[in-house]
Amino acid sequence: MGSDARFKKKTIDIDVGFDAVVVSPQVVRRLGVSPGSRIGVGCHGSLHGAIVVVSRLVGDDVVGLSTGLAEKLSSCDSVELYPFELPPSFAQLRKRIRGEPMEEVEYKKLIGDIVSGFYEESQIAAFLVSQLYKELSMDELSYLIRAMVESGVVVKFSETVYDVHSIGGVPGNSKVALLVVPIVAASGLLIPKTSSRAITSPAGTADTMEVLARVTFSPEEVHDIALKARGVIVWGGALGMAPADDIFVRVERKLDIDPRTQMVASILAKKLAMSVSRLVIDIPFGRGAKVESEDEAVGLSSLFLAQAKRLGLVMRIALTYGGEPIGYSIGPALEAREALEVHIKHEGAPSYVEKACSLAGIIFEMSGAVARGKGYQYACEILKSGKAYAKFREIIEVQEGDPDIKPEDIKLAPHRLTLEAPRDGIVSSIDNRGISLAARAAGAPDDKGAGILLHTKTGHRVRKGQPLLTIYASTESRLRDAVRILEETSAIVVEGVVVKVLP
Amino acid sequence: MGSDARFKKKTIDIDVGFDAVVVSPQVVRRLGVSPGSRIGVGCHGSLHGAIVVVSRLVGDDVVGLSTGLAEKLSSCDSVELYPFELPPSFAQLRKRIRGEPMEEVEYKKLIGDIVSGFYEESQIAAFLVSQLYKELSMDELSYLIRAMVESGVVVKFSETVYDVHSIGGVPGNSKVALLVVPIVAASGLLIPKTSSRAITSPAGTADTMEVLARVTFSPEEVHDIALKARGVIVWGGALGMAPADDIFVRVERKLDIDPRTQMVASILAKKLAMSVSRLVIDIPFGRGAKVESEDEAVGLSSLFLAQAKRLGLVMRIALTYGGEPIGYSIGPALEAREALEVHIKHEGAPSYVEKACSLAGIIFEMSGAVARGKGYQYACEILKSGKAYAKFREIIEVQEGDPDIKPEDIKLAPHRLTLEAPRDGIVSSIDNRGISLAARAAGAPDDKGAGILLHTKTGHRVRKGQPLLTIYASTESRLRDAVRILEETSAIVVEGVVVKVLP
Lengths: 503, 503
Fold this sequence. Notes:
The structure is a homodimer of 503-residue chains. The first copy, chain A, is of the alpha/beta class and 503 residues long. The first copy, chain A, has four domains: 79 residues, Barwin-like endoglucanases, CATH 2.40.40; 61 residues, Transferase, Pyrimidine Nucleoside Phosphorylase, Chain A, domain 3, CATH 1.20.970; 237 residues, Pyrimidine Nucleoside Phosphorylase, Chain A, domain 2; 85 residues, Aldehyde Oxidoreductase, domain 3, CATH 3.90.1170.30. Helices cover 41% and strands 19% of the residues of chain A. In chain A, strands 1-5-2-4-3-6 form a six-stranded mixed β-barrel. The longest helix of chain A is centred in the middle third of the chain and has 18 residues. Chains A and B meet through strand 4, helix 3, helix 5 and helix 10 of A and strand 4, helix 3, helix 5 and helix 10 of B.
């Protein structure tokens, strides 16, 4: 790229969802660029991509910088603009869009340019959609993961780092880490868990933990508090680790796709950036989950294991039951509450407690702390002994929350409605997708107090009029939306004990 | 979509490449939308999609509208905002992104939403990339074309409408219509040609015609001047015909892809919107052209012919030689000049004149004016008789240009450089792609006077020092860029007469 001009700069209060540079109509004509396209902005050869916004808010010798961009360019006295028709590495991406493989050095360039902001979302979309049709090869996937790790911050530890990560897609799952991490950390192993906020679900682990403590820290802070408490549960998004991933995820949401090679890249890149070397991957499968069949789950496991081997990561996979929500709560505050209750009472819904102990148990087996087959029991004992709760309080404290918080202190949304069983019978299904959509309609995850509390689970016998679930919403209209979705999706079904009489 | 609020409006001088609505940080939080995403804006149920821009330039009870959007909403006293997570028809597009076919009614919804601005470019990109892997079926292609036509303006005529259209991809081709249209119109047939501006080439027919006359008219104006002169050459982009196409083309440029089903849809939708019922499609093929092999050209022909039949369009295809530039000129002014010279002298480069007479001849044969096999001769006679030039002057006049303009009146770019033959020999190749890139680097098509003038063609014998081509550029640096590209791409090669001596 060659620079075409040098400009004075000023900060303009404008947010178009990406770094933006505001230029006058005269300047945009002279540069021959289109409004809405990307341009390089910088000084002394250090360049950032920005969206071109055209306005007479600036004169012909000045460019306006959006707040974020102004910070990145704070050391520039004046700035230069570098127009380009396509991003520098586009020739490489061009091949991939057509389904041809890319080489290691090409992935490095591509990811570098994506992180620099040279790519538009349409171009990122093309990369993602190509994976639906022509999956990344095992080589390509390794190249992509390494390039993603190298393009961002890496937090280093001088000891073995453990972690557990669920591929998600099952409502109520965000609270599992709130048991696993304290159980593992209580044993002395190091488990600095980074997690995401909700993408399409009603709660991500970061959203749920945020009900109890701060989750946004700098990489240095995470390093220090993790060593102090042996475990943390923080948001990965603020750490600058594998930053291309945030861009991929944003576009995936808009396309409602989640190509499995990209999912594997996303998870493993974030873990490698935290120096994790022993990892348990939880793949919940079942109706309405991200992975519906066991075959599919096994296929995905192979992909994870093969990549782990290439990347020098010791990994075990847990295929878990994901055919209905985990535990009783869906939504950040409700899930934080259920987690706290289990810590305090040392017991709770089997779908929740057994899952958490199983995952923690696998980590203990990997660490050599216990023999194979003994991990689950070991984890349960830590939970039952209260050591996990003590550790959880410690983690909440290092994350600047109140360790003395009680379940009933957690505020829930004020508008509530309880659905009751329309007849005597058995709860024959609780639909993941319907429950997720309804909890989101109620306001989760942005409104942390919103969500759904189940009073029953699949297979339970209920009497007519017995409460099935309660919706918590921030407004009456959101409450109505949630009820409508529950009805439309038949999210919970009660059937007579005799399901069918054959002639 | 349900509205979440009503606002006062004001116009804000901002162009982000798409209609935009500027809202305050407080409002964006309340609506739960992200900056950069799309939102519905309107009143009384009439909605337009716009990009969300966040700024304190507006208060909490006001929204700012970009100029174009303000015009669309001029009848609204106040406006409402309608947030949505995904566009209303996204469930349909979701299938297509995964390669499943869409139904007729689904294409209508999709195209309607695209035209309304509810789709982001990333989502359009996914639609286009899916076609690279899973081509539209013949049914889908017809649905898409019809939906594109119905979503915009249709210009109706009460007589048979003829047209000729090249799929493009060969430099120098934009001037062909400047012969064909006058020849056909001189015979009395109606040929209201709409054409595009350059997408990736150094000149579109609209760019070249614009050197001689106005090309931007309203649909009513095009209708009237076409009936007056029997032929016009105007820009299709300003007519509001098949408006989704402009959106597709914009994204195709960013992805550097041109899926053939989308190309067929694009061409046929624009023609149907002009009520064309007899159409000649020119498919140039050869090295460096859009279509490289004859097989590929034949395959594309079948696709065009099958769709034409379904859409009730009488069509003939011309497979033409596209292995080097057409005629001697590349770039709007240079090509307009060559066209004018041929009109005045009644002769010129065979690759140009013979092509134009052939295409016009096919139209004459389709019309029944002459017997099959006699069209070419008939067209040549119209050109040689001066009737075509008289008609061209008439067309220039109804399009508000100067009919008396002479070739030498046309202004060319001031910075010039002539490449000379490095040795005695034969011109063994002139590369389409190298010539195109160099002409664009020189400034074409935005700088109309820029481009390349060939002094020789493939197969011609040249002496050392004899001029091969002249570059016209607007600045010295653009001239240097063009020379560099010509050298890097070996755009013109002179070889000794004896190419190889075998032992």
